[in-house]
Design brief:
Structural class: alpha/beta
CATH topology: Rossmann fold
Radius of gyration: 17 Å
Strand order of the largest sheet: 1-9-10-8-5-2-3-4
Shape: globular
Largest sheet: 8 strands, mixed
CATH architecture: 3-Layer(aba) Sandwich
Strand content: 25-35%
């Protein structure tokens, strides 16, 4: 498997208008690449931060069994409405992952909601709780520790993340490196794969480009230790 991949820098399809200002979906091309490489039809694909359901919807389209957890009720409702296997998404807090009736899992692809090193509201709580960046990383680590119990022996876990560039006087957050270090305490870090993005003219395609200020993301690959 290459250590970098080059993919179209876009997402297929638009979200409903109420969600368009908060479109943080991963590119479907990226999901397709990893699901094709790491799974077979009939395998169980899981996302503990399901969001708008990209991982689950792509997995289901590719004849895999989708499962996910989403804490935001509106995003949960949207994703559930799109899935055929509607009961395979759970409304809940992934910090309580070990309390949910999850199946054995063959593959995980996820992109946790990000936190800057200078922020004081914990995104894992839906920004309802105060908490430091270190608390956030500790809770990320604990989520993946709990996830380990559900992973099949050959399962791979892919975490899509990028470092947060400094802007408007805010410092840079080395989120990719910090998250790698945190998760590697509970799962074995196997490798990183850099996803590089090609430019796309969304005015002509009607599709939404990724817009994060970078032309690459890091896909961190973990296995059971």
């Amino acid at each position: 498997m290459k250590t970098y991949i080059l993919l179209p820098r876009m997402k297929r399809g638009m979200l409903p208008e109420e969600f368009q200002d908060d479109d943080v979906r991963s590119a479907e091309f990226l999901l397709e690449y990893f699901i094709e490489h790491f799974t077979q039809p009939g395998d169980t694909v899981f996302d503990p931060f399901a969001g708008f359901g990209t991982t689950l919807l792509v997995a289901e389209r590719m004849k895999r069994i989708p499962f996910g957890i989403e804490a935001d009720e509106r995003r949960y409702g949207y994703t559930r409405s799109k899935l055929t296997m509607k009961d395979n998404i759970i409304l809940g807090d992934s910090r309580k992952l070990d309390t949910f009736p999850l199946p054995n899992i063959d593959f995980v692809f996820t992109s946790p909601i990000f936190m800057g090193c200078d922020e004081t509201k914990n995104p894992l709580s839906g920004f309802k709780e105060y908490g430091t960046y270190q608390v956030y990383l500790d809770q990320i680590q604990d989520i993946f520790r709990k996830l380990d119990a559900f992973l099949n022996p050959a399962a791979r876990v892919v975490v899509e993340v990028y470092n947060l560039a400094p802007r408007d006087g805010r410092p840079m957050t080395l989120l990719a490196w910090d998250m790698t270090y945190a998760i590697s305490k509970v799962l074995r870090f196997e490798k990183e794969i850099i996803a590089c993005w090609q430019g796309v003219d969304d005015e002509n395609t009607g599709e939404t480009p990724m817009g994060v200020g970078y032309d690459h993301h890091y896909c961190l690959v973990f296995v059971k230790d």
